[in-house]
Amino acid sequence: MTQGQESKGPVATGPGNEGQGLDLARIRRLVDELQATVASAPGDAPGVQDLKDEIVTLRAVLDSPKEKSGWIAEGLHDIRTQLQKTGKSVQGEALREGVFIAEIGRILGL
Prior knowledge:
The chain is 60% helix and 4% strand. By secondary structure, it is mainly α.
């Protein structure tokens, strides 16, 4: 799916998550906001570059021509984990990790 295209609706996240889906438009908005926020984080803070890399990876999966719901869910989990690690080192500077962690949790149904 290329940027600007609408989501085809919720995407099933695989076995064990039947009936739950991922709202791709919501995830794209979250990734856009997170990427803008992380861009202003101190580059030398531990974990910031890893977080940036996870965001780039998830964006590539979202932009692929074939939707990979399992990969999207995994990418969100990875970003959530990295936010938890990075947020501790940046502590309230540029990252609002709690807001993003909560939103990712809502998207994944956690």
